[in-house]
């Protein structure tokens, strides 16, 4: 076990990345536990206020991210400074992305439907960092042989091809597949060859005069969302807490 740790984590310089990922996940989990206790009125915790102003935890998160980021740039990745900076950066990123929806909407949507975006972004970030930690390189660079690495043309063609596949998947409205496709190229290929989601830039550009393609795309999205929407919402509720119910609208109000 010790030999594996040194060879796969310490020698390649992956220890800071592992520490950052662990701090990121742990900070997110602790933050969600504390906020759910505050929401339920349990425990000794409470919202932080300064002069009547509610200080959201994205504020210390930004500070920790800045300190950790600059510390990582200034330190040797094999030294103690890099480890400390990685932990600070991971903690800061966990606090910031836990309130990603607040930053996106510029409104306190933490316990609303819009707040689910924070949970989704945190899960995606943890998964992508985990893939990088496992040895995957962006755009399939890790799949190149030594001869291809020395051949600039082959390396550039591989990177450009995988980038194009991810771009097509993104244009088809498949942001998650495009993100994972950056790290795992075959995932981007799946998103690139399948039908685009209705309303995506690709669908507006290429399905405008193809009613059959539009109908097939709409039916496929309906079936996909009907199958996966409920399990996805249940997982998000389990991780981040159930959102507050939307207030009922009075007749005649919009």
From TrEMBL:
<feature type="transmembrane region" description="Helical">
    <location>
        <begin position="80"/>
        <end position="106"/>
    </location>
</feature>
<feature type="transmembrane region" description="Helical">
    <location>
        <begin position="118"/>
        <end position="141"/>
    </location>
</feature>
<keyword id="KW-0812">Transmembrane</keyword>
<protein>
    <recommendedName>
        <fullName>Integral membrane protein</fullName>
    </recommendedName>
</protein>
<keyword id="KW-0472">Membrane</keyword>
<keyword id="KW-1133">Transmembrane helix</keyword>
<feature type="transmembrane region" description="Helical">
    <location>
        <begin position="153"/>
        <end position="170"/>
    </location>
</feature>
<feature type="transmembrane region" description="Helical">
    <location>
        <begin position="177"/>
        <end position="196"/>
    </location>
</feature>
<feature type="transmembrane region" description="Helical">
    <location>
        <begin position="15"/>
        <end position="34"/>
    </location>
</feature>
<feature type="transmembrane region" description="Helical">
    <location>
        <begin position="55"/>
        <end position="74"/>
    </location>
</feature>
